Amino acid sequence: MSILANDPVVVGGTSAASASPDAHEDIGKPPTLTNTVATVVINEDRDGNLAYNRNSDSTHSWKLTGQGAGFSGGFASRVLFGSEYKNADGESVSPVVTIQGENLGVAAYISNVTSSGYDLNFPALGAAAVGRIRLSVKQPS
Question: pLDDT tens, 56-113?
């Protein structure tokens, strides 16, 4: 057997190290959107420097685009984590969510943070106007 068989970098390796020790960093189980308002389209942001970006629970980026007459602002969507946040005892816990927006006249904000997700609130966007937001989610200490 090759010594590379257990190398986490080698495709097909069997090493347990190939899996992330933190399920919230798994890009195979990214956060999803639900209850999105009809006047905004929200997609994973993969433009420019983020071309190879893939969302995970712990770090994700969204691109919002106003539709029709535009998004009037406020609640945009509910973000559901790919994996529920739990403490070392297996109890559900609300994580700490840090938000950063780009070129916003009014700050975007989150609300209703739970172990399974949060509400994304965003400033108004005119028709076809684009807004971007980046989020970092950490286990509470």
Answer: 999 999 999 999 999 999 999 999 999 999 999 999 999 999 987 655 555 789 999 9
Tokens of 41: 């389209």
Looking up tokens 């068989």 gives 5
Q: Does the pTM exceed 0.90?
A: no
Nearest-Å Rg of the Cα atoms of the chain is: 18
Report the 10 Å Cβ neighbour count for 16.
9
Can you give the CATH number for the domain in which 129 is found? 2.60.40
One-character DSSP codes across 76-123:
EEEEE-SS--B-TTS-B-PPEEEEEEES-SS--EEEEEETTEEEEEE-
Residue 95 belongs to some domain of the structure:
yes
Chain position carrying tokens 């816990």: 93
